[in-house]
Amino acid sequence: MEYNRVPQNDHNRPECRFEEIIGHSPALKSALLEVERVAPTDSTVLVLGETGTGKELIAHAIHNLSPRCGRPFVKLNCAAIPFDLLESELFGHEKGAFTGAAAQTIGRFEMADTGTLFLDEIGDIPLALQPKLLRVLQEKEFERLGSGRTHQINVRLIAATHRDLTEMVSRNEFRSDLYYRLNVFPVLVPAVRERREDIQPLVSHFVEVFARRMGKHIDQIPQATMNALIAYSWPGNVRELQNLIERAVIRSDNGVLPNPLPRSKKEDAGATTLSNSAFMDSQRALILQALEATAWVIGGPFGAAARLGLKRTTLVSKMKKLGIYQPRRQRVMDEFNERSELTM
Questions:
Q1: CATH code at 306?
Q2: Dihedral angle at the C-alpha atoms of 209, 213, 216, 221, nearest 10 degrees?
Q3: Torsion angle, alpha carbons of 26, 29, 33, 35, to 10
Q4: Amino acid 266: pLDDT
Q5: How many angstroms separate the CA atoms of 125 and 70, rounded?
Q6: Residue 306: is it exposed, middle or buried by C-beta count within 10 angstroms (0-12/13-18/19+)?
Q7: What percent of the chain has pLDDT over 70?
Q8: Listed residues 188, 205, 221: the one ending a domain
Q9: H helix runs in 93-143, sequence order
Q10: I need a labelling partner for 339 at 20 to 30 A (CA). Which of 40, 106, 268, 314 fits?
Q11: Which residue has the higher pLDDT, 71 or 279?
Q12: 2 vs 92, which has greater pLDDT?
């Protein structure tokens, strides 16, 4: 049995408001619903999810659906900039501010004025720099390095991380006041293994992209190959899927896509072990974030289960499996309220 590629969405359809975000799974729809809710506001957004899940695409979608669309969208990967240069990258510097500063340079906050600044891997910002970031978020002002002049800015901030910031706060690796200033509106991006319904359209999309780029014609994906791709654990998420499909298109012959997954049982077992460990850690962090954002309300349209795109019973089961229990004080209050309702 062969799998024929599904045509790409018509760009006039509603689901295409999110550019290259491909999929229709409940988990992804839940995340995109949160994007639609927060985009028209000017609130700070914290995008959470594993590496490779497409957090930058979510940030782009928030900007594109906001009143700031058409104005600057500036991004910076905080993990990719050395500590001694990160402050200058963010706030700019004056000529002669430090060795090698041969000219005045504006930082990313100034570049993004009237628009949106996306700070990826916000968890990698050093503690020494966090007070300055907190100040610009609260006061909307900063000074360039080597200057005493204060600059006022109008920037909407979107931050992203794959780290558990609450754990970092507890270890004094991240300032609690900065965390609460960033965590105004969290958006949880699901891992690929949490949205397996989307693997088929994702494969179709990347096959079309790379085949066109390489001048190849691929019209068949063997059902066994598609089944293997759907069953795979995808520890690297969409980024890994994209890279493997590119490899498969390079190796394709006669219009048929080969299976790009590791062949040996050892490789498969290793990938599964890595995936399970990373998945458990990430899932626990995402569930805790959702519970904190909803004051530990699990069910209902505004509860944690709805935020995560899960049924209430499924979330409760996952919480038990991961050892997540409601704080005692809140639990006692909930039990008291339940008893009160029964006696009314």
A1: 1.10.10
A2: -20
A3: 130
A4: 35
A5: 28
A6: buried
A7: 81
A8: 188
A9: 108-111, 130-139
A10: 314
A11: 71
A12: 92
Q: Which residues of 128-138 are buried (b: 16+ CB within 10 A; e: fewer)?
A: eebeebbebbe
Place of tokens 């994906």: 221
Distance between first and last Cα of the chain: 61
Q: What is the mean pLDDT of residues 74-79?
A: 94
Domain contains 226: yes
We report the CATH number of the domain holding residue 92 as: 3.40.50.300
Contact present, 86 and 129 (Cβ < 8 Å): yes
Count each helix (H run) and each strand (E run) in the chain, helices first.
14, 9
Task: Say how many CA atoms lie within 13 Å of 226 toward its Cβ.
Answer: 20
- Tell me how far apart the alpha carbons of residues 106 and 243 are, in angstroms, rounded to a whole number: 35
Q: Which amino acid is at 326?
A: Q
Calculate the CA 232 to chain-centre distance: 21
The separation between CA 83 and the C-alpha centre of its own chain, rounded to angstroms, equals 23
- Cα distance between residue 106 and residue 92, in whole Å: 4
Q: Rounded distance, CA 200 to CA 227, Å?
A: 9
- Are the beta carbons of 135 and 142 closer than 8 angstroms? yes
274 or 146, which is more confident: 146
- The two structure tokens encoding residue 227: 């089944």
What is the pTM (predicted TM-score) of this model?
0.72
Q: How many domains, the chain? A: 3
Alpha carbons 246 and 157: distance in angstroms, whole number: 33
Strands 150-152 and 156-161: unpaired
Q: Please report the DSSP string for 180-199 in residue order.
A: HHHTTEEEEPPPGGG-GGGH
Supply the range of the domain harboring residue 329. 273-343
CB 169 within 8 A of CB 175: yes
Same domain for 219 and 143? no
- CA–CA distance, 329 with 341 (Å, rounded to integer): 19
Average pLDDT over every residue of 94-99: 68
207 and 151 part of one domain = no
The pair of structure tokens assigned to 242 is: 């994209």
- Residue at 282 is within a domain: yes
